[in-house]
Amino acid sequence: MVTGWQPSTATERALLTAVDADDREGFLTELASGPLLVPVSAGAAAGREPAAWPTGNHDGVTHVVAYTSPAAIAAGLPGQSVSYRVSGLADLAVDWPDDDWVLAIDAGLPIGVRLTADELRTLAAPTVEAERPLREAILRQDPDVLMSVLLRAELVLPLRPGGPATRDLSDPEFPWWTLPDEQGRVSLPVFTSEARLRQSLGERDLVLVSSLQLTDRWPDLSWQLLLNPETPLAAALPGEALLTLRDWLGELREVVTEAAEQEQRRRETAAYADPSTVGVPAQRPATEPADDDGPDPGVPLLLQLVIPHRYLPSYLDDGYDRAAGLVHSWHGPGRDTPIRLYRRLGLLGAGSPFEESDEWVAVLRWPPGEATPEQWGQGRPRMESLVVPDGTELRCLHQDGRDELLARFDATARHWSPA
User: Fold this and answer.
1) pTM value?
2) How far apart are CA 415 and CA 409, in angstroms?
3) 278 sits in which H/E element
4) Is 159:205 a contact under the CB 8 Å cutoff?
5) Residue 409 CB neighbours (<10 A)
6) Could you read off the pLDDT of 6-63 as tens digits, one per residue?
7) Residues in a beta bridge with 393
8) 3-class SS of residue 231
9) Going from the N-terminus, what domains does the chain have, and what CATH number goes with each?
10) 359-to-309, 337, 340, 401 alpha-carbon distances in Å
11) Considering only CA atoms, which of 159, 156, 321, 146 is closest in space to residue 236?
């Protein structure tokens, strides 16, 4: 055990406090959210060669070593000049090379711990799952997919040290903190979590913002957005791309506002209805079947989203792979027509692209996947923006109850294959 070591970061102080209190759960929680420094060669640290896993053998078992700070490296490997890359527990879990290897963090220090491959994956699982859409977007190097992920993310902005105290992005005095990239372009670092910020910059004053707030208040289109710089989940977007994201958000905002206004009008109409008619079902045309009570319990859960008629050619002809609207559960074979769907989702009213007289309407329909939030398809419809999942069906619901398959989406080719 190394003597004379003292914690040098907030994470290490929290880890030591947990050790002293014999709080293993608290210890592991702090460990999962903090940065890890993984020793590498000088060439790998400079990006000139691939990084090899820093391994050693103890009791016949291969150990990968990592540390929680430069001071921890200096204490654990005294007298050695050590280069390192900054990572996180989730990054190590995703790339872990061998189930028989063990991760040794801060070996020899009071906060030292060893994790088996299974323990590492279990501890990192929540973070890995939360970051899966972002990781996949970066691996695909697709800016459209990346922006779709950012659309739903809460973002973390580091603040300029010593800047004004305001935390209002609309304030001209807001302390934006920028840095130059390798080409000298002004860049604004933005992070998808506080853990990612600490991994890159250490302890920093910060503010949490939504993608809506950031795009509305983006200070200069000549700036680029650096997402999670100096981490394995790094990406860059030009300022002009923020205009596209802002337009998407503006369209969503209009849809949400219109839906809310329709619901308010419906409630006001109900509140002032003739008391003698309260509880009496309204008469409907004989050609329209009565509404059911919900999804057919005998069919598997499928999610559905209605597509305005004018967008259909974009999917079939141009391979369009994004969607925004009310995500809801499919009610089952023969249980939906355009008018019933419109009324159930509140899609009729002034300014709506849908009309009661529509003879057909197109919908996207797909099964929930591992990355699908549990709430989708449960309870009330949810306004969402998404990248179309692989295998999604584009279907046409007809006024007579027919449910026609038009095409199926191939995410690899970004192409809709006709049925």
Assistant:
1) 0.59
2) 6
3) none
4) yes
5) 22
6) 999 989 999 999 999 999 999 999 999 889 999 999 998 888 888 899 999 999 999 9
7) 365, 408
8) coil
9) 10-130 (no CATH), 141-243 (3.40.1350.90), 287-418 (no CATH)
10) 11, 9, 12, 10
11) 146
